Amino acid sequence: MSDAATGTTAPAPAPSAALLAVPRSGWHVATVASTRRETPNASRIELEVDGWPGNAAGQHLDVRLTAPDGYTATRSYSIASSGAGTRVTIAVDKLPDGEVSPYLVDEVRAGDMLEVHGPLGAFFVWAPDAADAAAAGEARPVQLIAGGSGVVPLYAMAEAHGAAHDLTSFRLLYSVRSPDDVYFADELRRLAEASAALQLDLVYTRRSPAGWPTPPARITREVLEAAVIPAAERPRVFVCGSTGFVERVADWLVELGHDARSIRTERYGGT
Amino acid sequence: MQHVDGNALAGPLAEFFSFDLTTAIARCSGCGAVGELARTMVYRSGAGTVVRCSECDQVLATLVETADRAWIGLSGISAIEVPRG
Ligand SMILES: Cc1cc2nc3c(=O)[nH]c(=O)nc-3n(C[C@H](O)[C@H](O)[C@H](O)COP(=O)(O)OP(=O)(O)OC[C@H]3O[C@@H](n4cnc5c(N)ncnc54)[C@H](O)[C@@H]3O)c2cc1C
Ligand SMILES: [Zn+2]
């Protein structure tokens, strides 16, 4: 859609919390402001996006790379940041035989330019607009469940929750290979320390920290049952990670009595 | 083939629609299931994008794009409910 068209056809902002008003999407030129290793296999990339209208926590953007011969490749990346402003953070996991991710993780440098389309998606989002409901004791608790890089949009939600001093009860269950593979490790620790309303539960699948009570293992239905807000409390659940991870977790949640309508998923692909 | 959620349609559809269609509710003409487009299953390949019902796997929609036009097929959707602000 062209920028000229957006001004006249924009719908009025949705008044209800259910119809979350998200900023209009468009194509933008982004300048890489900084990059850093996030984990041994991933990079965090901070973008300065000219004309970015801000974004809600959980939204994604599409990155388009164009080769000199005109060939293009487009991939989706969740946004780790939220709110107003033109600074946008993404975090990318490197797939060894991937077309786009090795470039983003290993090659991109500060000052490089990327084409981005966003902010995108109004479904897999959380906004601290339920603060009044929380104060009135009506807000449903929120369960976040991440596998690997799938924590990116859920970190954005946890961060928005903390920044808004939202009282909604939040719990994040995060499955990672090893302690080195935790994305936003310091930020998550600080958020959990700062807010009694956020609980962080880590599951290590390959290597646990020294002294960890359980040996490394993939998430099972039993672990899920023990670490997520019980179905009886009717949590809203957000699950994100590789397609296989998301499908295993979502199926177990339904078996454990969670209402499928209350589960929102973001499959990243893969198996 | 690997698939992702209908969420990933937000970018491609924003090229043609002026609002976020992924929160619109579609009815599958095969099994009658209703749900947000964001809840469908999306299969992408070089040839294009196929959107399938997450309940019965029927093809709901297809999207094929070239440099100067796009073909949007909606053969498996019997109705779409769009929220109004
Ligand atoms: C809405 C959305 C948000 C996303 N957000 C993020 C994000 O925040 N961070 C991030 O790192 N990725 C994210 N992804 C995945 C990302 O879009 C790309 O699929 C990923 O970076 C691989 O691209 P590639 O070009 O390197 O690999 P490709 O060249 O596309 O694929 C290379 C090989 O890896 C396989 N593969 C593709 N995707 C995956 C996967 N996710 N896991 C395992 N194997 C895979 C392919 O089948 C193929 O064999 C997101 C995907 C979606 C749909
Ligand atoms: Zn169906």
Automatic annotation (TrEMBL), chain A:
Its cofactor is FAD. Pfam families: FAD_binding_6 (PF00970), NAD_binding_1 (PF00175). Gene3D superfamilies: Nucleotide-binding domain of ferredoxin-NADP reductase (FNR) module, Translation factors. The keyword Iron applies. One of its GO terms (molecular function) is 2 iron, 2 sulfur cluster binding. Keywords: 2Fe-2S, Iron, Iron-sulfur, Metal-binding. The keyword RNA-binding does not apply. Residues 25-126 form the FAD-binding FR-type domain. PANTHER family: NADH OXIDOREDUCTASE HCR, PROTEIN RFBI. This is Ferredoxin-NADP reductase. It comes from Agromyces cerinus subsp. cerinus.
Automatic annotation (TrEMBL), chain B:
It holds the Pfam family DUF6510. InterPro entries: DUF6510. This is Uncharacterized protein. The lineage of its organism: Bacteria, Bacillati, Actinomycetota, Actinomycetes, Micrococcales.
